[in-house]
Design brief:
Blueprint lengths: L1 H14 L1 H19 L17 H8 L9 E8 L7 H15 L18 E6 L2 E6 L12 H13 L14 E6 L13 H16 L4 E7 H34 L2 H24 L11 H25 L4 H28 L7 H29 L6 H22 L4 H21 L20 H12 L6 E7 L8 H15 L4 E5 L1 H12 L13 H10 L13 E8 L4 H17 L6 E6 H36 L2 H25 L8 H27 L4 H28 L7 H35 L15
Antiparallel strand pairs: 1-4, 1-5, 2-3, 6-8, 6-9, 7-8
Helix pairs in contact: 1-10, 2-8, 3-19, 4-6, 6-7, 7-8, 7-9, 7-22, 8-9, 8-11, 9-10, 9-11, 9-12, 9-21, 9-22, 10-11, 10-19, 10-21, 12-22, 13-20, 13-23, 18-19, 19-20, 19-21, 20-21, 20-23, 21-22, 21-23, 22-23
Protein name: RND transporter
Subcellular location: Cell membrane
Membrane topology: Multi-pass membrane protein
């Protein structure tokens, strides 16, 4: 039935090939017009794992707590410290410039100059809170005496290490962002904001005397978008290398450009569809379309290899194209369907950015079925070749197949047993090595950028000089109504903060308890021994009510209390250790009516993302392998085929995990698609080789000679594809973007290891299975038998 369907489809398409190609051409023009409107877009909320415990806390208290979607700007004099008129004036100018940038929540801006920063003093009349810098102080009035007073009030207010560096060498301005932008109602353009920070803040105020340091999500996105221009350059290099390699393989510019154009057509359709669906191209997913292009190259080379083989065997180009269509349609659809399922499974990850990426990738793979399996053979059928070209193609085919004959000796029973044993040893070694691989970032700063990138240099500088940076985790302590006088509750929060400060990676802890102890010292004539939580509930309630700084750390009636844990960085190992410490504390220190909730802050978001990736990875891989097993069984109705195709793929996957650990590459939203893609490419190799094997077995050949012929016919194309793709993506290793460099290294490794497994482990496993469990019936071949 399947064979008859393929034949009828072949007859219909080739009988109307001009019309079909014309429809494809019109579709391409329309999609090119739509795709030209596609824009790079990014959003903070797209990175938040939906429904996760930590994100529920983040959303519930987003308007009350310090927002993880924020910007920090540091004014750092290159000579001396911040305590001079010029530096303080620059600080004021930068504060005002930042306040009026698009998307900035003006009420959230804090610096020495903003009126929401108070210094609380104890007078004879009680607590008195005044702005740190009086509204009567102007830049022209910054005399040495006034500056000395400001410096003293910074110390009195406890802002050293917060708004001013511990050594006084710099001052910080912080602001939260509003998304959507309240002025326009549209989603905040983070890339434009990143560029505005560079042009209107750093470009305007940084000079020979002052350095401006900027950190925050919007700045990262802007830097990644700027680095994306390099992505296009490296992709262009990869495209050029692919063109040259394909020409070297087939020695026909017509076939070469037909294959490249068909693969590029998929990108055009993909971009056009994205715009029609209202999607943008996320900077972290900008490489996905080119990964889809790589899949197209893999299938296109198999098509060209088939046609070259048929032409060399005496067929016309038209007949070769038809035979290529019918001969490769089934294995091609199987391979692309498996890749499609691989990407669709990423929808299981409850992170909007990854789900959007899965949709984009799935669209591209679905279009590959049309462009590579239908369009390419139809276009190639119009080509003409000379007898001389056919003769030389046959000679090249024979020469290239000679060394594949050597590899085919693996299929001999003794060699197959040895290779199977070695492969299993490699597998167990890879599993052992990758057992403790890290999910998440493995470096401080932005993992998408190089360690020496300006953003990461700024991040390290802020972490070194300030007790608070852009990496913090907020734990919300929920309590009964009117708990501000609950001494035991505040003592519990104090104990929590003290224990957390002793956790590796925690720089400082800020809570209502730490402020209470500071104010209690003031109430008791500055006696240091009184730096404790008051034992009297009324005194405690009074202090909390008077402390202006406490407003951001508690809800009305102390229904909730926030504990900010400022971290050295947001590396996965750091966050994991802190989160586990919080979980241990809330289990061992329980109080009736009190609940410790994880987590807000950017580290809380990062922790949620890491946990979601870790918990989603295994189900995703199981679904992918389940789809492979099901498709192989439906195609071949043979459990041997399932094992022969899946075992090498499994070995390659775990070798990829071991490579990630060796290279210090964590499993992130950027590297996850690479591992999924590697499964798809590995399946491509396995299906094409196994399909040819089945056809030779069905013709009556023994397993050894069948593999020898299968590898000579498709193994060369497999090796060539892997080498071509590897050389192309290997150039990405030189990118200014670390995540692109990591993807380049990982893709290069996975292309090569999947190829090696396909031409060595697959034959070995197949032969061993044939020896252990001989066939009792005829070999079933999907598709047409006469190829």
């Amino acid at each position: 039935m399947l064979t008859a369907f393929v034949r009828r489809l072949e007859e219909f398409l080739f009988a109307h090939r001009g019309v079909v190609l014309g429809v494809f051409a019109l579709l391409t023009v329309f999609m090119a017009w739509e795709g030209s409107k596609l824009r790079i877009s990014a959003g903070f909320d797209k990175m938040l794992p939906s429904g996760h415990e930590y994100i529920q806390t983040f959303d519930a208290y987003r308007d009350q707590l310090q927002d993880a979607n924020s910007i920090a700007v540091v004014v750092h004099p290159r000579h001396g410290d911040i305590w001079n008129a010029g530096s303080l004036k620059t600080l004021l100018d930068v504060t005002q410039a930042l306040t009026f940038l698009p998307g900035v929540n003006r009420g959230s801006v804090t610096s020495l100059w903003t009126p929401n920063i108070f210094v609380t003093e104890i007078t004879e009349e009680g607590f008195k809170a005044d702005p740190l810098i009086s509204g009567t102080v102007t830049p022209d009035a910054l005399t040495p005496e006034v500056i000395s007073q400001i410096r003293g009030r910074v110390v009195e207010g406890g802002y050293m290490g917060k708004l001013v560096a511990r050594d006084g060498s710099a001052a910080l301005i912080a602001a939260s962002l509003q998304d959507p932008d309240p002025r326009t109602g549209e989603p905040l353009d983070y890339i434009a904001l990143g560029h505005a920070l560079e042009a209107q803040i750093r470009g305007k105020f940084e000079n020979a005397d002052v350095e401006i340091q900027i950190i925050g999500f919007a700045k990262v996105v802007g830097d990644i978008a700027d680095g994306a221009s390099g992505v296009l350059l490296f992709c262009a290099i990869a495209l050029l290398l692919t063109i040259l390699a394909v020409y070297w393989y087939c020695r026909s510019w017509v076939l070469t450009f037909q294959k490249i154009i068909c693969s590029m057509t998929t990108l055009i359709w993909q971009f056009g569809t994205m715009h029609l669906l209202g999607l943008g191209l996320d900077p972290l997913a900008i490489l996905v379309p080119f990964l889809i292009f790589a899949i197209g190259v893999s299938h296109g080379v198999q098509q060209i290899n088939f046609m070259v083989r048929e032409v060399a065997g005496g067929y016309s180009m038209y007949d070769a194209a038809r035979r290529s269509f019918s001969g490769l349609l089934i294995p091609g659809v199987l391979a692309l369907t498996t890749t499609l399922v691989s990407f669709i499974t990423m929808v299981l990850v409850p992170i909007p950015m990854i789900r959007e990426l899965a949709i984009v990738a799935s669209i591209g793979v679905a279009y590959k079925v049309v462009s590579n399996l239908i369009m390419l053979p139809l276009a190639a059928s119009y080509s003409t070749v000379t007898q001389d070209w056919s003769r030389r193609s046959q000679e090249r085919r024979d020469n290239r197949g000679d060394w594949m004959t050597v590899i085919a000796r693996i299929a001999k029973p003794r060699n197959a047993w040895i290779m199977s044993g070695l492969t299993l040893l490699v597998f167990f070694g890879a599993v052992t090595m990758s057992s403790d691989r890290v999910v998440g970032s493995l470096q401080p700063g932005s993992p998408e950028l190089r360690a020496d990138a300006r953003y990461n240099q700024d991040s390290r500088a802020v972490a070194d000089k300030f007790d608070i940076g852009l990496d913090w985790l907020t734990v919300v302590v929920e309590a009964p109504e009117e708990s501000c006088g609950n001494v035991e509750l505040v003592k519990l929060v104090d104990q929590f903060g003290w224990e957390m400060q002793n956790v590796p990676g925690v720089v400082s802890a800020e809570s209502i308890a730490s402020l209470t102890k500071l104010y209690n010292v003031g109430l008791n004539e500055g006696i240091p021994l009184m730096g404790t939580v008051p034992r009297d509930g009324q005194t405690l309630d009074y202090i909390i009510a008077q402390a202006q700084e406490a407003a951001a750390l508690r809800g009305k009636g102390c229904k909730w209390l926030a504990v900010n844990l400022y971290l050295t960085d947001h590396k996965a190992t750091t966050i994991h250790g802190v989160v586990n410490a919080v979980k241990d504390f809330r289990v061992s220190h329980q109080m009736e009516g009190v609940k410790f909730r994880l987590a807000s802050g950017n580290a809380g978001v990062e922790a949620a993302t890491n946990e979601v990736l870790e918990h989603s990875e295994l189900p995703m891989m199981l679904y992918v392998y389940g789809a492979i097993v099901l498709l192989v069984f439906l195609a071949y109705r043979d459990w041997r085929a399932m094992l022969a195709c899946c075992l090498p793929l499994t070995v390659a996957t775990f070798l990829g995990y071991a490579f990630m650990k060796w290279q210090g590459i964590g499993l992130t939203v950027a590297t996850l698609p690479v591992m999924v893609l590697s499964v798809g490419v590995g399946v491509d190799y396995a299906f094409y080789i196994y399909n040819r094997l089945q056809q030779h077995l069905a013709a009556g050949e023994d397993i050894v000679s069948s593999f020898e012929h299968a590898l000579k016919e498709t193994g060369i194309a497999t090796v060539f594809t892997a080498l071509t793709l590897s050389v192309g993506v290997a150039t990405w290793s030189f990118s200014a973007l670390k995540f692109q460099a990591d993807m380049g290294k990982l893709l290069t490794f996975m292309f090569m290891v999947n190829m090696i497994m396909a031409i060595t482990a697959l034959p070995a496993f197949a032969v061993v299975l044939e020896r252990l469990f001989p066939r009792r019936g005829p070999v079933r071949v999907p598709g047409l038998m006469n190829h």
